[in-house]
């Protein structure tokens, strides 16, 4: 067994495999003159070898015992998935392919005159582990613009939704309906070989990301009566187009916010509800539209993405009860009342993080730069000085610090995007980047159907009764 493992390892450590490992971790500029699909095609054979070698060397090693408590406790901390785009450290926060948010802000290409990273570059990084060139990012902007149109029946579907249907439900409906034109679903019906899955999945993922601004813009305008949707401008970047479709394209600071927002919400390793759901559904070989619609349904829950809506509702309720310039004492009382009412403080706590979320910090820095005197921003800061101590005193939450959702609503509100029911849609646009990158790699590496084992309480009781 060991000999076999060693020989596989030896074969796999070709210069090509090594170059993938090093390029993923250390390269700052992607191979020039290739587009994303070509670059992927170059990377896949070496990564297949790499995974084979890792499995041969470590496949039988254990992460340690699984506790019965983990089965009842939402699988917290259970090592169960491979996710390559990002890794979340409890203390440090997220790294996208090994890079922190400030590193991404420094290294990824920017728009002319802009300071925030272009999400196009982040997607390239998530998929390849490499920093793209400015030209490669521009090509992606153009490619996405060219793919951005929605089928007419999807437009009609959205137009027929009652404005009372939550924007996330509309979003999920529209993404599900895009499966009508899935390249992967068609190729599968036509009998494509397993080895070729990643190609049409890549095309679907590119189409998916490209069409999201038109879906989000249409929902926003329909639900909030904002008039006719303008068209996508192929000479502009993705975030600029998204901002334009929402009606804020003339505000350069809002466009910059969208670039930052999409970058930092894109991926948060694989175990969170939206990421894991996308991977799970994709493992059944459901196409990327179906898989990502499932992600969106998970993101729509108040303990996950909907928390950004909940934060604003909670803040507004606070202001209506204790006034706009409330004292710390009044805010404390309101926070305690929330907890005593058996509710969570939205925007605080995290299943993995044990420190202030660097995505919160990135947004705070943006606010300090662009809107330091905004009253809602000041309230968010005031709450940051109050809530952690209260959560610690209450003694239940393992992490008393703010997460990404504690801040985003204040930024959007500042620029006039005040409709909080829409906020999770923007999170969803961004989350597509992370889920799509993993779906492509899952199909390229032949990831199998997910099928963990479940147990009944009676079975657990029988299994462990009388044992220490
Ligand atoms: C994110 C969240 C769901 C993580 O859940 P978790 O991993 O189970 O968190 P913990 O292990 O710290 O939970 C232990 C207890 O503290 C409570 N707790 C955690 N965060 C809390 C918060 N912000 N306010 C009040 N109570 C909280 C939990 O509800 C749980 O209570 P219980 O024992 O009565 O069930 C949780 O912190 C939360 O509900 N936060 C508010 C919603 C939010 O901001 N979600 C977005 C996350 S990015």
TrEMBL record:
SUPFAM superfamilies: Citrate synthase. One of its GO terms (biological process) is citrate metabolic process. GO terms for molecular function: acyltransferase activity, acyl groups converted into alkyl on transfer. The active site is at residues 304, 350, 405. Keywords: Transferase. One of its GO terms (cellular component) is mitochondrial matrix. Belongs to the citrate synthase family. This is Citrate synthase. It comes from Pleurotus ostreatus. The lineage of its organism: Eukaryota, Fungi, Dikarya, Basidiomycota, Agaricomycotina. The gene is CIT1.
């Amino acid at each position: 067994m060991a000999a076999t493992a060693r020989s596989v390892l030896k074969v796999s450590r070709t210069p090509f495999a090594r170059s993938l490992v090093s390029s993923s971790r250390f390269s700052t500029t992607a191979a020039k003159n290739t587009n994303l699909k070509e670059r992927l095609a170059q990377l896949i054979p070496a990564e297949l070898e790499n995974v084979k070698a890792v499995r041969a060397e470590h496949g039988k090693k254990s992460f340690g015992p699984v506790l019965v408590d983990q089965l009842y406790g939402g699988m917290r901390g259970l090592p169960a998935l491979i996710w390559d785009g990002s890794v979340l450290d409890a203390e440090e926060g997220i790294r996208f392919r090994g890079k922190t948010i400030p590193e991404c802000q420094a290294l990824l290409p920017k728009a002319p005159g802009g300071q925030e990273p272009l999400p196009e570059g982040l997607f390239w990084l998530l998929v390849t582990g490499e920093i793209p060139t400015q030209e490669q990012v521009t090509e992606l902007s153009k490619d996405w613009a060219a793919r951005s149109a929605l089928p007419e029946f999807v437009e009609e579907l959205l137009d027929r939704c009652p404005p009372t249907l939550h924007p996330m439900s509309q979003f999920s409906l529209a993404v599900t309906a895009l499966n009508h034109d899935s390249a992967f679903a068609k190729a599968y019906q036509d009998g494509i070989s397993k080895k070729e899955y990643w190609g049409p999945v890549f095309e679907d993922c590119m189409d998916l990301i490209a069409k999201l601004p038109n879906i989000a813009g249409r929902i926003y305008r329909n639900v909030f009566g904002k008039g006719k949707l303008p068209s996508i401008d192929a000479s502009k970047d993705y975030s600029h187009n998204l901002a334009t479709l929402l009606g804020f394209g003339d505000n350069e600071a809002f466009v910059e916010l969208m670039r930052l927002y999409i970058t930092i919400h894109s991926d948060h390793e694989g175990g969170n509800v939206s990421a894991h759901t996308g991977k799970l559904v994709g493992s059944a070989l459901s196409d990327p539209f179906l898989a990502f619609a499932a992600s969106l349904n998970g993101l729509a829950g108040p303990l996950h993405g909907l928390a950004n809506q909940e934060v604003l509702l909670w803040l507004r309720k606070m202001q209506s009860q204790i006034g706009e310039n409330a004292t710390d004492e009044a805010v404390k009382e309101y926070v305690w009342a929330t907890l005593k009412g058996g509710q969570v403080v939205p925007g605080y706590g995290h299943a993995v993080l044990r420190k202030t979320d660097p995505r919160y910090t990135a947004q705070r820095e943006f606010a300090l730069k662009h809107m330091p005197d905004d009253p809602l921003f000041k309230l968010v800061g005031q709450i940051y000085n109050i809530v952690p101590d209260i959560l610690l005193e209450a003694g239940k939450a393992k992490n008393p610090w703010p997460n990404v959702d504690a801040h985003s609503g204040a930024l959007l509100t500042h620029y006039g995007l005040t409709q909080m029911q829409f906020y999770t849609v923007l999170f969803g646009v961004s989350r597509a980047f992370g889920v799509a990158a993993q779906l492509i790699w899952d199909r390229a590496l032949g990831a199998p159907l997910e099928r963990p084992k479940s147990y009944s309480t009676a079975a657990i009781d029988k299994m462990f009764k009388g044992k220490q």
